[in-house]
Structure formats: C-alpha cells, structure tokens
Design a protein that fits this description.
With 260 residues, this protein is α+β, with helices and mostly antiparallel strands. The protein folds into two domains: 19-125, no CATH class; 155-253, Cytidine Deaminase, domain 2. It is built from nine helices and five strands. The protein has a five-stranded mixed β-sheet, with helices on both faces.
C-alpha cells in the first residue's frame, strides 16, 4: 500500500499549509513541540499576540498586525518572518493588504489562503469607510469621503477611475469603478459618464481617480478630461462637484485648486 505523507509546518514553517492539516479549534499546535526536543522558540507567541491586540490594537506594529492576519491562513508555524518579508517587499501594512494578489504571491510563503486573509482585511476596511458615507450628504462629510477614496484607491498599482453619483440632496446613489487602465492612464468617455448619470437619475457627480506614482498632481490630460465631462454633464443638467486625485502622498481637489 502506498502511503501519502501530509506536509507539516516543520518542513518549512513559512509555507502555506493545506487547510485540512489543522483540525478545527486547534490553536498554537506547533507550540506543543516534539517529545524529547522541547518547545519551539515561538511557543505561546500567538496567544500573546492576541492578548496584546485585544488590550490595545492601535499600539501593535505593522508586522505584528500582519502576523495576526497570517495566523488565520497558516494555523501552525512561525509567521513572523513572512510578515516581515511582506513589509520589506511592499513597504507598509496598507501597501501589503492593497497589493494585487499576483504580486503578493511573488513573496515566498504566500498561497491562496494567505492572499485571501490579507485581501479580506482590505475589503473590510474599505467597506467600513464606504458605509460611513452612505446616506450622508457627501459635501458635509468630505473628510470621510476622502478617507474612503484613499483606502479604496491610493495604493493601487494601476490607475482606476471611479464616479460617485449623487441625488438632489448630495447623497450617494452609486459608487462605480470604471475599467482599470495602465500605470498612468485610464480611458474615460464623457458620453458614457453622462449616460450613466441619466440612467441613475443623478443630479451631481464627483470624479475620483488615483495616481500609482504616489504624486496626486493633475496632468494636462486629467484637466482636459475633467472639463470635457463637466461640459457634457452640464448640458443635461447634471453638476460636477469635484474631481479628486488620490495617491500615496496625499490628494488634490480640482475645486480647491480652482481647476473647476
């Protein structure tokens, strides 16, 4: 009879484990050690991490917060080296969780379960911030809107253009990402923007896009495209309140800059 050996965390503690290899409810299994050898150096580390997190989440450094997320994907083994490798590769906690799945997989030790854990954290943060601006007049909740846009777009690797459609009370009707572009260009067609605004019975628009370079300074093409959309929308009675560019280094409002 041929037997199949299931890989354990002792083979390589940084590699993703098959979910079935960890019985439900088993925590810190690797901390039990091997008889006659003694416990590994990270015995009890996960329990201490959880205790510190629950006591004061904001005090945790980025690598320990990443460790907690990776523990969800890898029920055994020491994930601290993997957390630090991710930070070395991407630079910050925000950039790790915002990285595209294919880029995350270039870091040794990250598989589908690890990617899912990290992207779940990003989706939860974006959804929380989005819900804070729903059913609120966005012009009087501007800081919340900016927080949401930065979380959703600032750390993307390619340009993305999204349109916020507002009703007569400036409440959010829809938030719709358009097609993704390249590192420095996203094609946007004023006729399609206006058509969608009419479909939704929107009274106003806010345009948002990101600059993957990190610098939110508008380009000439950004300014020209914005004025084309403003003029097309105005022709059918729809106002363009603002165009906001977000990046790692901050944001720029066209209205605040006198560009609208």
């Amino acid at each position: 009879m041929t037997s199949t050996r299931r890989r354990s965390s002792s083979d390589d503690p940084t590699l993703p484990l098959d979910d079935a290899s960890a019985p439900a409810g088993l925590e810190d299994a690797s901390a039990q050690g091997t008889p006659g050898v003694g416990k590994p150096h990270y015995a009890g580390h996960r329990a201490r991490l959880r205790e510190r997190f629950l006591a004061n989440p904001e005090a945790m450094p980025d690598y320990e917060l990443l460790e907690l997320l990776l523990c969800l994907a890898q029920p055994r083994g020491d994930v601290k080296p993997l957390a630090k490798a991710l930070l070395t590769r991407f630079g910050s906690f925000a950039e790790v969780v915002a990285a595209e799945p294919e880029r995350l997989r270039t870091v040794k030790g990250i598989g589908d379960t690890g990617v899912a854990a990290l992207k779940t954290a990003e989706a939860a943060a974006v959804r929380l911030l989005r819900d804070r601006v729903r059913n609120q007049p966005v012009l009087s909740s501007w800081d919340r809107l900016l927080d949401y846009c930065r979380a959703a777009m600032a750390y993307r690797d390619v340009e993305q253009f999204r349109i916020l459609f507002l009703d007569t009370k400036n409440r959010l009707i829809a938030d719709e990402p358009q097609q993704k572009g390249t590192l420095n260009h996203t094609p946007v067609y004023p006729r399609e923007v206006v058509r969608r605004a009419l479909d939704l019975h929107a009274s106003a628009l806010i345009l948002v896009h990101n600059h993957p370079s990190g610098d939110p300074t508008p380009s000439k093409a950004d300014v020209q495209m914005t004025l084309q959309i403003r003029n097309a929308a105005h022709a059918v009675g729809v106002s363009l309140h603002d165009h906001v560019i977000v990046g790692r280094d901050g944001h720029v409002s066209f209205k605040a800059q006198g560009l609208l």
